[in-house]
Write a structure and sequence with these properties.
alpha+beta; Phosphorylase Kinase, domain 1; Aminoglycoside 3'-phosphotransferase, Chain: A, domain 2; five-stranded antiparallel β-sheet; three-stranded antiparallel β-sheet; about 50% helix
């Protein structure tokens, strides 16, 4: 197992496993990414590829550990998602479970825009949001009650370590007045095992291409509650309202477009409780991105942070049954506080 590998060490592993000819002149450069993995661009003679390796200790202020076996489950999520929607995720070109890494194509920024970047710049298009909701809903629908998926993604321990504990439970400890509700939300989420969950559906993990969205970073893959994915993604379309004031109306429209397209896609399941659980979970995740172990990096202003802290608890103690009600209340609240 590699320990904090350099690019050259990763290249050596790939050559040792026979994926790269030993005589090839290959270079490596680190790429920026999230807190949970090392990511490298490897320039082969045939062109660039991307290598990803999970870390056992995540790159955050608080102690946050997670099993590196999640790298293998990410590979399996990619394969399962692409079986439902071709090209919904990058192909896996090479996977070495022992080394804890896999190789995928390098997707050129000329052809793919990072959704987080376009949202930051105020380029918030409802058609992008709707396509994300549609893809997500289709993956959930097509994997619901699938025994092979359920057997493959028995990752309760990983999901608890990398999602439920650092987001809901850690935030509850820091807010004793709603701690009981955060524990309850964690238990409810853990108890619903019905579909293939990505676990990190964030704009930073979604590329927008000419043929639709491409989902990245499925390290938290789990057979569990699809409401988590929907709430996790919608949450960012609330938080963005603190990032770019001028685009608030567009973020609000994107929230509704994503929610509605998702609901339409899962309508064949005839399970309205998914939307209800999303609405119940959303304010917990909203608060968690301020006071959990993985706060969003772009909300550092204390006044803005306190807006979230004052808004979320009321929806935790008196939950509503549709996420759009939370969205409308949040953006109306921002107008009041301008």
């Amino acid at each position: 197992m590699l320990n904090k590998p350099s690019g050259q060490e990763i290249i050596a592993v790939m050559k040792e496993r026979g994926w790269i000819p030993s005589s090839d002149n290959v270079t490596a450069a680190p790429l920026t990414g999230g807190v949970s993995s090392d990511i490298w661009r490897i320039d082969l003679q045939s062109g660039p590829v991307c290598v990803k390796r999970a870390l056992s200790k995540l790159k955050v202020k608080d102690d946050w550990f997670a099993p590196i076996s999640r790298n293998a489950f990410e590979v399996k999520w990619i394969q399962a998602a692409n079986a439902v929607i071709p090209n919904a995720a990058p192909d896996v070109l090479f996977h070495d479970a022992d080394a804890g890494l896999f190789v995928m194509p390098f997707l050129n920024p000329i052809d793919f825009s990072l959704w987080k970047s376009t949202l930051r710049d105020g380029d918030a298009r409802t058609e992008d949001a709707a396509s994300v909701g549609r893809y997500l809903g289709k993956i959930h629908t097509e994997t619901t009650n699938d025994p092979s998926i359920a057997k493959t993604f028995q990752t309760d321990e990983i999901f608890h370590a990398i999602r439920l504990e650092p987001y809901l439970l850690a935030t509850g400890v820091r807010h004793p007045n709603i701690n009981h509700r955060m524990i309850e939300l964690s238990e409810i989420t853990a108890a619903h095992r019905t579909a293939l969950v990505h676990g990190d559906v964030s704009p930073k993990n979604i590329l927008i291409g000419s043929d639709g969205p491409v989902f990245l970073d499925a390290e938290c893959a789990w057979y569990g509650d699809p409401a988590f994915d929907l709430a996790f993604c919608l949450n960012h379309l609330l938080l963005k309202g603190l990032w770019n004031r001028d685009a608030r109306d567009d973020y609000r429209a994107c929230f509704k477009a994503l929610c509605e397209s998702y609901a339409q896609e899962i309508s064949k399941l005839n399970d309205p409780t998914i939307i209800v659980r999303t609405a119940h979970l959303l304010p917990g995740l909203f608060l968690a991105r301020i006071d959990g172990k993985s706060p969003v990096e772009y909300i550092t202003d204390k006044v803005q942070q306190n807006l979230v802290r004052s808004f979320a608890p009321s929806f935790l103690t008196s939950p509503v049954n549709h996420p759009i009600d939370i969205c409308d209340a949040w953006y109306d609240n921002l107008k009041t506080n301008d």
